[in-house]
Structure formats: C-alpha cells, structure tokens
C-alpha cells in the first residue's frame, strides 16, 4: 500500500511517517520545503513538493497513492489563516483524493469539536468531518485532546529554567496522548476494516489538570514551579486585540481554542471501544507519568554530565594556573 502523509513535518505528522515506514509502507510526503523535510527523506520517505492551499499541486502528489493520512493544520505563526489551511486546503485535498481514486483517508480532528461552534478551529474541524463523510471516500476520523509533547514547552522547560508557568482559567482536565501512540492508531486503521467510515476518540489513559502536571514536574525535577495565573477575562481581551490585526488572526483563533481548555470542563472520552476495534492493548499507550519521567530522567542526567564537565574544566584550569605560577611554596 502506498501512503501520502500530509503535514509530515509537524509534531504528529513525522511520527505517522516513522510508524508507517517501520511497518513497511511506501510513504510519500507532501511538503512545502525539501530542505525542511530532508530528515524524512533520510528515513526513507519520498518527498513531493506541494501545498494544500495550491490545489494544482495535489493531483501529482496523489498519483498512484492508495491511502492518505492527513495531519495538516495551520500553525499560529503561519501567514495563512486557519480557514485557508484547515478548511479550503482540506476540502481541496479531499476532492483531489476523490478524483485520484484514493481507497482510504485518515483525518485527525478534535474531541467534542461539534460542541464549540464559536471556536474557529473546532468549528472548521467539525465541518471537515462532515465534508469527508459526504465525500464517498472510505474514511476514519480520529479525535484527540492534546499531545504529551506540548507539555514540555508549557510546563517542563519553564520549571527547569525557573521561569513562569502560565495557568489559564479553571484549568480543564485533559487526556493528553503521545503522538507516537496516535500515529500507531492512524496506521493501524489502514488494516482494520471495522474502522471504515467511523469516528473514534483517541486520548490518553486519564485526564490531568494543570496543577497536577505542575506538581509532577516539581517532583521529577526537584525544583519548585513559579506559577502565574491568567484570568479568563484577560485572555479574552488579548484575543480581541489579536483579532483586530489581520497578521495575528491565527493567534486570535488559537486563543479562542485556549478558552475551551481554560473553561474547566474535562476534555476526555472513553477509549474502551477504540481499543477493542483497533486491537490495541491499553498498556501499550504511554502514560503522562511515564512520558515526563523519561524526559526529566534524560534531562537531569544530561545536566549532571554538563555540571561534571564544568567542574573538571575548572580543575584543569586551576592546575594549569598553578603550573604557570613563578612563585614557589615556602616551607
């Protein structure tokens, strides 16, 4: 089976590529920059230059492709808007996949997207789900809540560097998942007929509140966090200001999504049926504790090695200076 991965250089997309290659798939990646995606070619993937927002580039990328795994989404720093990438681009991709005769289409969405029509990213994700369902393609939608990888920049690094950790609103409990595990479900869906034309939640083993994660990071790092709380009203004010300028629209739309996370409602779902259909054991999914323990274990070991090297360098410098000294010790 030949596979096209869209959004292959992203946090999730690269894990999809890695997993698919490891399982023997012929993997093609739609990329805007060959230079930025060079690591994917080194792994064994084929690179095809193209862009979701340039529909003419899609048919060549889809030629001969059996399945598509779509992990693309607009970044807050992108010059293009969420509507341009996550709606216009996704619609163009689905339509091009129809014409190309693609057999399977895997799409990543957001848990409870239909419940937040006022949040641009979630409304668009839900609309794409509907468009995909009506396209006639054999699809699978995987709805997730958040990535474990995002917790490193949000909590772990600020605590290690003794910087402020920002906590917003009432801190909803979120069932974060490792992108490697999410990629495992996506690739497995290609082999499981029972996943065709269905939508599944794919989330972590339990939901965690912000302060629970902070306490865990403190314990694992041996350092105390400097927590700064941002009121929800202030977050909304920042969003309105960002929305005023066209070049910060993506930031404003992402802040709208942040309001959902800060609303205090749990972002979680039962995985019982998902595990059963996909034939994946819950013990195979990385827990938040294990993920952070591994991260801090590696970081603390590295910090100790750096500190040891600094001490050795200091000792060598002191010995060198003593050797050069023209003065001799007196008895």
Topology, element by element:
Elements: E1 2-6, H1 13-22, E2 26-31, H2 38-43, E3 46-49, H3 58-62, E4 67-70, H4 82-100, E5 104-110, H5 120-133, E6 139-144, H6 150-160, E7 164-168, H7 179-189, E8 198-201, H8 210-221, E9 226-230, H9 232-244, H10 249-261, H11 272-278, H12 288-324
Helix pairs in contact: 1-7, 4-5, 6-8, 8-12, 9-10
Written account of the structure:
The structure is a single chain. The chain is α/β, with parallel strands linked by helices. The chain is 48% helix and 14% strand. The chain has helices at 13-22, 38-43, 58-62, 82-100, 120-133, 150-160, 179-189, 210-221, 232-244, 249-261, 272-278, 288-324; strands spanning 2-6, 26-31, 46-49, 67-70, 104-110, 139-144, 164-168, 198-201, 226-230. It is globular and about 75 Å long. The model is unreliable at 244-250 (pLDDT under 50).
What Rg is obtained from the alpha carbons, in whole angstroms?
24 Å
Give the number of DSSP strands: 9
Assign a percent range to the helix content: 40-55%
Enumerate the strands of the largest sheet in spatial order, edge to edge or round the barrel: 3-2-1-4-5-6-8
Coarse structural class: alpha/beta
Q: Describe the oligomeric state of these chains in a short phrase.
A: single chain
Identify the overall geometry: globular
Largest beta-sheet characterization: 7 strands, parallel
Individual helix count = 12
- Beta content comes to 5-15%
**Alpha-carbon distance between the termini?**
83 Å
The unreliable regions are: 244-250
Elements, N to C (H/E): EHEHEHEHEHEHEHEHEHHHH
Give the mean pLDDT. 87
